[in-house]
Amino acid sequence: MPHIFRTTRLLALGASILVLLTGLCQAQKAPSPEAAALKDIKVIFKLDPRITQGMYMGERWISPPKYTRVQEGKKPLMIEAMAMGLDARGKETPIQPSWTPADPEMVKVSPVQGRQVEITVLRAGETKLKVEFQGISRTLSIKGKPLGQVLVVEITQ
Predict the structure, then answer these.
(1) Which backbone phi and psi does 17 adopt, to 5 degrees?
(2) Confidence band (pLDDT; 50, 70, 90) for 26?
(3) Residues 41 and 26 in one domain
(4) What is d(CA 28, CA 82) in angstroms, rounded to the nearest whole number?
(5) Which residues does residue 46 pair with via DSSP β-bridges, in sequence order?
(6) 84-119 burial string, b = 16+ CB within 10 Å, else e?
(7) pLDDT tens-digit profile of 44-76?
(8) Which domain holds residue 21?
(9) Predicted TM-score of the model (pTM)
(10) Residue 38 and residue 22 share a domain
């Protein structure tokens, strides 16, 4: 008989812990109304892998006011970018924005909607890229300048 009571107590204790953990997880998932309100969009760029290659650093993402890359050979320049929403406290929130280039013959974005995209600069020139989610937007200025045999691309946020 005592063995049955111990087993019952252990099962009750286990069920109580499970209920508490489930409630805790749900409480952590629910953002406060203030934190849920999106205030801005931050765009970050994947650092050129040639810079960190062989340094065991993994992928590095940066968000400078001006991001510069140089075309490699004759192929179009591809830049990986990611958008994060910022709430009133500056805390990052995952978003799925739309990415709209003003000149699709100069800049192609794939996919056109999503958190992480690939921006392909097809030729020299200047254009804008609008990143928008729930009425909040950020416009990136893209300039492609020929320098000898390569294309230097500057993206300003």
Answers:
(1) -60, -40
(2) low
(3) no
(4) 25
(5) 61
(6) bbbbeeeeebebebebbbeeeebbebeeeeeeebeb
(7) 999 887 776 667 777 889 999 999 999 877 888
(8) 1-30
(9) 0.73
(10) no
What is the edge-to-edge ordering of all strands in the sheet holding 150-156? Answer: 66-70, 150-156, 136-147, 125-133, 98-101
Q: Do 60 and 119 have their domain in common? A: yes
Query: How far, in Å, CA of 17 to CA of 85, rounded?
Result: 34
Which token pair is 36? Answer: 């849920």
Closest CA to 80 of 90, 88, 72, 69: 69
Question: Kind of pairing, strands 61-62 and 38-46?
Answer: antiparallel
Among 139, 156, 155, which residue's Cα sits nearest to residue 78? 155
Closest to 115 (Cα-Cα) out of 89, 151, 85: 85
Say if CB 91 and CB 35 are below 8 A apart: yes
Q: What is the spatial distance between Cα 139 and Cα 146, in angstroms, rounded to a whole number?
A: 23
- Count structural domains, the chain: 2
Helix or strand or coil: residue 31?
A: coil
Q: Which residue is listed with tokens 């099962």? A: 11
